Amino acid sequence: MTSSRLPRDSRHCPRPGTPRLAAAAMLYLAALLVHCVPLAMGQYDICKSWVTTDDGPSWEFYACQPKAMRMKDYVTVRVEPAGITCGDPPERFCTHENPYLCSDECDASNPDLAHPPRLMFDSEDEGLATYWQSVTWRRYPEPLLANITLSWNKSIELTDDIVITFEYGRPTIMMLEKSLDNGRTWHPYQYYADDCMEAFSMPARRVRDLSTTSANRVLCTEEYSRWAGSKKEKTVRFEVRDRFAIFAGPDLKNMDNLYTRLESAKGLKDFFTVTDLRMRLLRPALGGTYVQRENLYKYFYAVSNIEVTGRCKCNLHANLCTFKEGSLQCECEHNTTGQDCGKCKKNFRSRSWRAGSYLPLPNGSPNAYCECYGHSNRCSYIDFLNVVTCVSCKHNTRGQHCQHCRLGFYRNSSAELDDENVCIECNCNQIGSMHDRCNETGYCECREGATGPKCDDCLPNYYWRQGCFPNVCDDELLLCQNGGTCYQNQRCICPVGFKGVLCQQSRCEADKKDCDGAPGAGGSLATVALGVLALQLRGWADL
Ligand SMILES: *[C@@H]1O[C@H](CO)[C@@H](O)[C@H](O)[C@H]1NC(C)=O
Ligand SMILES: *[C@@H]1O[C@H](CO)[C@@H](O)[C@H](O)[C@H]1NC(C)=O
Ligand SMILES: *[C@@H]1O[C@H](CO)[C@@H](O)[C@H](O)[C@H]1NC(C)=O
Ligand SMILES: *[C@@H]1O[C@H](CO)[C@@H](O)[C@H](O)[C@H]1NC(C)=O
Ligand SMILES: *[C@@H]1O[C@H](CO)[C@@H](O)[C@H](O)[C@H]1NC(C)=O
Ligand SMILES: [Ca+2]
């Protein structure tokens, strides 16, 4: 297969395979390159492409992921506790800028004066902010607490900063939490306070100071909680880009490096994945160093926008994600299915499911074939070869995808590639075979004279004795002469007076002494017994 790798862009730049007409092809490629370069590399925006190869046209599959979207358009929100939203009953409030002009009113029953939660997700017209607003801190010193929970019912991979815009001042203490399992379990994501030590007993840190080994550390930041005038600094961020930049460089130019790290660093990908987010607002903006008890109407929360940019997590098996029946769904390719393309389609269950991979660069792999067939749960990226390979294949398998049998084993033809019994030991007879390897049907390579699948039998005219040796005697062609008997094809047992391999030689001819009838020296018991018998017979004949 020699399809060429072109820079990637899906819709505007169709990707041909290796065209055979080289000159025309080069022109075409050049034209494509000119058009596609700005969008080249690491886009992962197409799942497959029809390519022409030396073996004819066929599909080639790549890792793919949906485009990043404005996730606030698909979210459901819950604000707690009940009654935290202002306006029921109607209430007056004022701002830190105008603390003594408390003429603003929140009234839930009047659309012009209501501040319901959905106003955190509408699109903002220039100049006029719409916002959710809490009740004021009239119960001070009881803390003013509010939870804002965002749920997608779908795993989302963050691709940009989460930006929360507060009108009338940012909270002086808040916390961001995340869930990866639709709200069953929650984990801290980031702490925010004007004094981290005092609020959370944590040192203040900045994301910019994190390193490659701490890129997924949960920290407390003081950057978004200090009072700077409520109009000036309105946003609280969860810095996704700064964390990406640790790997991809300040302008996120080196995304390949980021993808490589997302693939290999444990927990890094999951760190940027959420199904739910929760803001725990723990203390509102104070507009100063202490709370003015005589004017509690100026303490409240007001959130005008929550921007969450991310893409559906489809395990690199889909490039489209659509809003269906109230939730986001990946449009799965690569014979996968499920909301996140997290399992194999019905008729592909014998394969073990795996997420696609950003590697090898630039197109990644769907891992549909490129998997370890369940014989290894570890893959390793070999940088200089730009390949992903399975590590420590089990069940006597070997190879980049554990798709071969180890030496000394052969493929079980009735087992699928992901079966634990896929490789059968050759079991070659150690003496009868040349080595312990066998062919695909389990046949070993035999030494001379040996036969049988395992080389533990002898060919006709061979006998087994620590290996196969040619017969010395038999009942057909290699007959023992002069009344000798063939012992297990190994040798003739000769009557007294005869010797030689086939007892063909008379001892008298060879040595006069033997004619006296003394039994030959060195004979086995059987020979001796036979000799005795022969002597007796001779004696009787002489009588
Ligand atoms: C906010 O959620 C947390 C759980 O994460 C809960 O313990 C707390 O009581 C909630 N606060 C409010 C005000 O509902
Ligand atoms: C969440 O998504 C799943 C899968 O699409 C769907 O079956 C379920 O009804 C959704 N749940 C809610 C609460 O929307
Ligand atoms: C999905 O299944 C079809 C039909 O069996 C097959 O032709 C195709 O190669 C498969 N795709 C992948 C990525 O495994
Ligand atoms: C070959 O695989 C089948 C299916 O798993 C299994 O039942 C059989 O025992 C295997 N054969 C050998 C010789 O291991
Ligand atoms: C394996 O070897 C045997 C014996 O030489 C032969 O009959 C068989 O066809 C071979 N199988 C393969 C797949 O080459
Ligand atoms: Ca708004």
TrEMBL record:
Topology in the lipid bilayer: Lipid-anchor; GPI-anchor
Gene Ontology BP term (one): axonogenesis
Subcellular location: Cell membrane
Annotated EGF-like domain residues: 469-504
TM region positions: none
PROSITE patterns for this protein: EGF_1 (PS00022), EGF_2 (PS01186), EGF_3 (PS50026), EGF_LAM_1 (PS01248), EGF_LAM_2 (PS50027), LAMININ_NTER (PS51117)
Signal sequence residues: 1-42
Ranges of residues in domain Laminin N-terminal: 60-311
Protein name as it appears in the record: Netrin-G1
Taxonomic lineage from the root: Eukaryota, Metazoa, Chordata, Craniata, Vertebrata
